[in-house]
Amino acid sequence: MRDHVLERLRASWGQRHSGAQPRSTAVEQEERPGEVLQTGSAGVLFHGDYSAVTTVGEEFGQSRLGIGVMHDLDGEIVSINGTAWCIPVDGRPRELDPDEGIAFGIAAHGGVGHVVSIATGSSMEQILIAVDMYLESTHVNHEQVVCAIEIVGTFTDVILRTEAPPTYEHEPLGEVLERETRFEFDSWDGILVGFRFPNLTDGEIIPGLHLHAMGSDLLSGGHVRRVATSTVAATVWIDELHPLVGSKGTAESNGPDIDFDKYEGPLA
After folding, report:
1. Is the pLDDT reported for residue 7 higher than 80?
2. CA–CA separation, 104 vs 44, rounded Å?
3. How many CA atoms lie within 13 A of 154 on its CB side?
4. What's the CA gap between 79 and 54, in Å, rounded?
5. What are the angstrom distances between the C-alpha of 212 and each of 26, 78, 116, 189?
6. I need a labelling partner for 129 at 20 to 30 A (CA). Which of 120, 209, 232, 240 fits?
7. Domain residue extents for the chain
8. What is the rounded distance in angstroms from the CA atom of residue 228 to the CA atom of residue 92?
9. Is the pLDDT of residue 183 over 80?
10. Is the full-model pTM beyond 0.85?
11. Who wins on pLDDT, 99 or 27?
12. What architecture (CATH level 2) is domain 114-264?
């Protein structure tokens, strides 16, 4: 049975970006080994340095999908097929120019997409479980790889967030996020993109599941704090070039001074 809701959403995204800036074709993307690249450090952000480390074009221009943060903390970033938007404090996405600076970015390139089944009503925690179960079924340890994730469809009980710039120089990100701006939707359709990083971190990466969202009408988006799936299609790309062989970690390697669960994870 064909799902016309998902077909409509997929078609709208494909048409919207088909005339965007030149980028590798879908065939070329599939032929390249999967690779996830991060520019900037989560730890540096949380310690209050929001200066630009690269540009939108350099980070996302040829990517499949990506997420990030604008320089000076001027909004969350969502990138889809090489086109990027930021969601400032008013919640209205703005398409970014390639030469604009970003303070942090993660982008996925190439690879073969793996279809993952996600049940209706799945929360953030359950989405993570579904991804990890799929990886386990293919004999991949989620603590030894990084995965890019795309979920397209309709959702309920959605809370997205963005943030205003800091109120003083080098204000820690944790303090800024205590004032995060949230947007709530009983029903919402669009696309979630992001990454599943290993749970162990030295503070350079954001552990676990990290998703950003863009509405199908381009009128809403942000960092996902809560969501429940309705009718969705999910795809995962595995980084084949940077396997974390023999991943080891200790309690001290979890970035003890950064509460990632509180500020980046799903709301209770």
Report:
1. no
2. 9
3. 11
4. 15
5. 22, 6, 18, 13
6. 240
7. 35-109, 114-264
8. 22
9. yes
10. yes
11. 99
12. 2-Layer Sandwich (3.30)
